[in-house]
Write a structure and sequence with these properties.
Radius of gyration: 21 Å
CATH class: Alpha Beta
Number of strands: 7
Number of helices: 7
Strand order of the largest sheet: 1-6-5-2-4
Largest sheet: 5 strands, parallel
Distance between the termini: 65 Å
Strand content: 5-15%
Shape: globular
Structural class: alpha/beta
CATH topology: Oxidized Rhodanese, domain 1
Number of domains: 1
Order of helices and strands: HHHEHEHEEHEHEE
Helix content: 40-55%
CATH architecture: 3-Layer(aba) Sandwich
Length: 169
């Protein structure tokens, strides 16, 4: 029995070795290092593009601006900021972004997520802070070439905003 346990331990150790990890096939459609590099490159840009609620709403309502809500379609239907357009983050492609945003990559885009709201109830349940949707949305929009992106800073209650609640059924 002891020999079997030692053999299984050695096999497990061999399977978890870096040499085996190097044999894992590469996926040219996934570039983790590229994402991390872009995130680091955009850190200061993102910080400079965060706006308090009053400026965010004022600028988002300007001609040609787009307020983009990238939460799920279901969460958007349950409530969203007035004037927002929904494109779920999981649906981002070059084509879907161009369809919703347009071809003008300089168009001002204003984003927000659950973590901008203090309510912490549906449809704005707080996410883990390091995984808040604003972060990958900002990075992905830049990665797709839309670089005039502005983010709602701070935390507010939906009652403090021009919140559109779910339509009664």
């Amino acid at each position: 029995m002891r020999i079997l346990a030692v053999t299984l331990s050695c096999a497990a150790l061999a399977l978890s070795s870096p040499a085996l990890a190097q044999e894992t096939p590469a996926n040219p459609q996934i570039d983790y290092d590229g994402f991390v590099e872009l995130a680091i490159e955009l850190a200061e840009v993102r910080e400079a593009h965060r706006l308090p609620l009053d400026r965010f709403l004022e600028q988002a309502r300007a001609d040609g601006a787009l307020m983009l809500d990238t939460r799920s379609a279901a969460a958007f239907a349950e409530g969203h900021l007035e004037g927002a357009v929904n494109l779920p983050f999981s649906d981002f492609t070059s084509e879907s972004l161009a369809e919703v945003i347009g071809e003008n990559t300089d168009r001002p885009i204003y984003i927000y997520c659950n973590n901008n709201f203090s309510d912490d109830v549906r449809p704005v349940l707080a996410k883990k802070a390091s995984l808040a949707l604003n972060i990958p949305t900002f990075i992905n929009l830049h990665g797709y070439g839309y670089t005039n992106v502005w983010e709602l800073a701070g935390v507010v209650g939906t009652s403090e905003t021009s919140w559109v609640p779910a339509k009664p059924k």
